[in-house]
Structure formats: structure tokens, C-alpha cells
Design goal:
alpha+beta; 10% strand; 220 residues; two-stranded antiparallel sheet
């Protein structure tokens, strides 16, 4: 039968990109846990042995719900094999169901406010290193090793970061405790107070590298 599984970020992304997955009767599948998907416990018409999808070096079992399973469903095979999901930032929504590659402009748009409960954002900080979408959560930003909440204060700091970059401060400069005079000297003195206020406003992000890294990517 065909089901709509928007409750799960992975399944919503699959449905948007590929189409509704075709599931077998969940009652029959539940009779034998080993027959269900090792990651999500679902059962699709085509199941693929785990060893054909992930390597022996794979370590992302923490979120798998059915370790007795010996196969992966079509949805989970896709999420591990579709390489752009590991290399590019993406935004997933469930109402409507969409999966969009996120360039800096789209990232900035989504992160300019708090992330809605029907939106998930995935940002590989080291592209290709990990599978991030399987661990994505609604209303959060998923990066290489964790998920981040995105508060109104973070949205404000993103705008501050964008203003400072517009003045010409590089990513390396923005990590310093004070603004570089080489840039200040090219800016009108009447703008200095705002620049110093903005610089101080970014201080919490300098102590919270993951948020800072996401902000930098959203303002490139």
C-alpha cells in the first residue's frame, strides 16, 4: 500500500524527491522484527541488505530503531546512497513536503527567524564526512555531530553577521575579539559605534562555534 510518512524528516524528504514509498502490510511486517528496516522498522516492497548500503566503518547506528533488522527499506537506502545529502545543505518541509538544496541565500532566508515545527535544516560543516539527514529533527539545524536549536537571538546575530560582512570583514577577522582597523579605516567614523555594538553582539557565537559556522555559511 502507499503511505504518506511526513512525521519523519527522512520519509518526508524521500516523498518530496522520489514519491510516496510503497509499504507492505505493517501488521505482517511486525510479526518478524528481522524483516523490518534496521533503521526505521518499516517494510517496503524492496528491501536491501544492510551490508550493501553502509560500509563496515559506518558508525551512525545510534538513531536506528530496529537493530534486529538485517535490511534497509527503500526510503533508508535512498537517504544513505543519495550523495548530495552528504555534501550539500538542504531544507526539508512537511507541509507541503519539499526537499530543497540550500544555497547561502536560502539558508539565510530560513535562518532569519526561528525554524518552524514543520521545517528541518541540514548543514554539512565537513561535506561528505557523515550522513546527516537520518538524524535530522523538525524545528532544528542538524550539523555533523549534533542538532542545534535556532532561537530569535540566533536569528538576530545572523543579521549582525551579515552587516559586518557587508563592511568587508572576512571570516577570519570575524573570529577576533575586536574589529580589524584595516577595515574600520575604510568605514566612516560615524558607523564605528554600530560596528562595535555588532561586534560585541556576536560574542556568544564566538564561544559557540557550531552556530557561528552555520551563520558564516548562511552569509556567504
Amino acid at each position: 500500500m502507499t503511505v504518506v510518512c511526513a512525521a519523519d524528516v527522512v520519509c518526508a524528504a524521500y516523498t518530496a524527491a522520489v514519491g510516496n514509498p510503497t509499504m507492505t502490510d505493517p501488521v505482517r511486517a511486525s510479526d518478524d522484527r528481522a524483516a523490518g528496516c534496521a533503521r526505521c522498522s518499516s517494510h517496503t516492497v524492496v528491501m536491501t541488505p544492510v551490508g550493501q548500503v553502509v560500509s563496515r566503518r559506518f558508525t551512525g547506528y545510534e538513531s536506528w530503531t530496529n537493530l534486529a533488522g538485517r535490511s534497509l527499506c527503500a526510503v533508508c537506502v535512498w537517504v544513505y546512497r543519495h550523495r548530495p545529502l552528504r555534501t550539500d545543505a538542504h531544507v526539508v518541509t512537511r507541509d507541503p513536503m519539499t526537499l530543497r538544496p540550500a544555497n547561502p541565500a536560502l539558508l539565510h532566508q530560513v535562518l532569519s527567524t526561528t525554524i518552524g515545527a514543520d521545517t528541518a535544516v541540514v548543514v554539512p560543516l565537513r561535506p561528505g564526512r557523515k550522513h546527516l539527514l537520518p538524524d535530522a529533527r523538525w524545528g532544528q539545524v542538524t550539523i555533523d555531530d549534533t542538532t542545534l536549536t535556532w532561537t530569535p537571538a540566533d536569528a538576530d546575530r545572523l543579521q549582525v553577521l551579515r552587516r559586518l560582512r557587508a563592511h568587508g570583514f572576512s571570516e577570519i577577522m570575524l573570529r577576533d575579539d575586536s574589529p580589524a582597523y584595516s577595515v574600520l579605516s575604510r568605514v566612516g567614523a560615524d558607523q564605528w559605534p554600530q560596528i562595535f555594538d555588532d561586534w560585541n553582539h556576536l560574542a556568544p557565537w564566538r564561544q559557540a562555534a557550531p552556530w557561528f559556522e552555520v551563520g558564516l555559511r548562511a552569509t556567504r
